[in-house]
Amino acid sequence: MSESHQDVLIVGASAAGLSTAEALRRGGHRGRLTLLDAEERAPYDRPPLSKQLLSGQWEPSKVALRTNEALDALGAEWVLGERAEGLETAARSVRTSSGRILTADAIVVATGVVPRRFPSSEGLEGAHVLRSLDDALHLQGRLRPGNRLVVIGNGVLGSEIACTAVTLGVDVTLVGRAVAPMSGTLGGFASYLLAAKHEAAGVRLLGESRVASVSRGWTAIHVLLDSGEVLPADDVVIAIGSDPATDWLDHSGLDLNDGIVCDAFCRAASGIWAVGDVARWEHPGLGSLRLENRTNAAEQAIAVAADILGSGEPYSPIPYFWTDQFGVRIQVHGVIPANARLRITDGDPSSGRFVAVALDAVDNRPVGVLGWAMPKQTRVRRAELESVMAPTP
Ligand SMILES: Cc1cc2nc3c(=O)[nH]c(=O)nc-3n(C[C@H](O)[C@H](O)[C@H](O)COP(=O)(O)OP(=O)(O)OC[C@H]3O[C@@H](n4cnc5c(N)ncnc54)[C@H](O)[C@@H]3O)c2cc1C
Question: Which of 9, 32, 56, 57 has CB atoms 3.0–4.6 Å from 104's, for a disulfide?
């Protein structure tokens, strides 16, 4: 790639924003590089927040994404502790919470997502969400043996929190709309295996359940279910999904529709890109897509940096995520539709280690690979997806 001297402003200096900055420098960007973030902290990684950090295995310093020396080596300007509050799209300028105006030739939006909350839980002491390091440290302080914790939302985050908490001796109830933990992303078979792990560890599972309200009683928080049952709790974690952090872009003229709508090159407008959890782009093989996972944050950053530097290509990854629960690494490449047929290719579910290829219910095409405690073989089987999920020209 040739040298580039344009000014680049990256809004959101976490996994996706930092990776974009690094890829730009690696690719020959010599111009001014500014990273703006609402948090004061140096960039840190989020996956350990619900796992090693929440369990107390890791000190907070271990979640840092880079050393201070590596951050310095980027030769970037850091504007931390200031929120972006508005974007002038045509002028490519961002107004920050201190009133500063930052202007650049290229702007990359990497503001991630914000957790959803229940209106009835706003401001309620003991009601938590988990997105930031502060959230994780606060929740960690509450996970004492015998405490009653209700986790609302049985997707990946809620399941991980329930797993970590029960391992610490907390009395955990996991309640959610899905029939079993993570059934929306793992499909039926693996989510039932996961449910068995949770139950064996002592988690009370309430699947296919809706929460009507969360309120404070005299001695406990009350989680009221649609069924009329009330779950008393010392603490509640709300893990019912997230919304793209785009409120500050409301008047920007950018197309916002569950994320910043971009083309296949992750371009939202002339000179403006989006990357990571906040970006909804046109995947050449899979259509309009927004992914909330760590691998995508890093890979999409490389694609965006290449495009800014003039050698972009349509971004067409095979979606991938992992979760770690009860000592098992569960991995999904591609997607596992609820009605997919599973073909076990390696290992054996009864031994606690296996890989399965998910086949489309209609045409038997491989659409996903599910790995259960077999990372190497899972990676090998991923190749089966490459030919069938390849982007259409
Ligand atoms: C607890 C937890 C566990 C996870 N576990 C896994 C896992 O096991 N596997 C997996 O694949 N993924 C996991 N993820 C998801 C993964 O961490 C995210 O996909 C990844 O962090 C996305 O990176 P990002 O940079 O796009 O967004 P973020 O990491 O959310 O960063 C966005 C940044 O933008 C900043 N920001 C937001 N709004 C503004 C504004 N207006 N002005 C300035 N700055 C702003 C924020 O302060 C933040 O630093 C987990 C996430 C969480 C929260």
Answer: 9
